[in-house]
Write a structure and sequence with these properties.
By secondary structure, this protein is of the alpha+beta class. The chain has 3 helices and 7 strands.
Length: 152
């Protein structure tokens, strides 16, 4: 596997440690990323997304959705079945899993629903007013100090 040296990024930037750490984590995890359960990520609006995870065989009680330290953690633990079944073929995987999604700043989970074997998790980016772009009024050359002196 190829390794990328991010040391020049650390020397030339301040405050971008999270990006470098995320790139390290992504590049290190590509070989061992689990494929179960399958999922989709769709963009539903400019600042909204939906994660759909195939969870056939799991009930709402078996599933857990948590947000912890800017990460969405979806896990499932199948309750122990007490009846004795004899399977001729068992192709539906009901094994426990934990799936993590790193959330960007100001992205929050707005809801989760379990419909027809799909767990749908809705996400929304809510940018605070202080970070939104704002228009600055352009004056005719007078500064605010000049206006304050004229007022007194």
């Amino acid at each position: 596997m190829r390794r990328i040296d991010l040391a020049p990024l650390h020397r030339a930037t301040v405050g971008f440690d999270q990006i470098a750490d995320m790139m390290d984590r992504i590049l290190a995890d590509t070989a061992q990323t689990p494929s179960y359960p399958p999922y989709n990520i769709e963009k539903t609006a400019d600042d909204a997304w939906r994660i759909s995870i195939a969870v056939a065989g799991f009930s709402e009680d078996d599933l857990s959705v948590e947000v912890r330290e800017d990460a969405l953690i979806v896990s499932a633990r199948k309750s122990e079945e007490t009846d004795e079944r004899t399977y001729l073929h068992r192709g539906i995987a009901n094994r426990a899993f934990e799936r993590r999604f790193t959330l960007a700043d100001h992205v929050r989970v707005t809801g989760a629903s379990h419909v027809n074997g799909m767990l749908n998790i809705d996400l929304l980016r809510e940018v605070p007013e202080a970070l939104k772009p704002r228009r600055i009024e352009i004056t005719n050359g007078e500064t605010y100090e000049t206006k304050a002196v004229e007022a007194s």
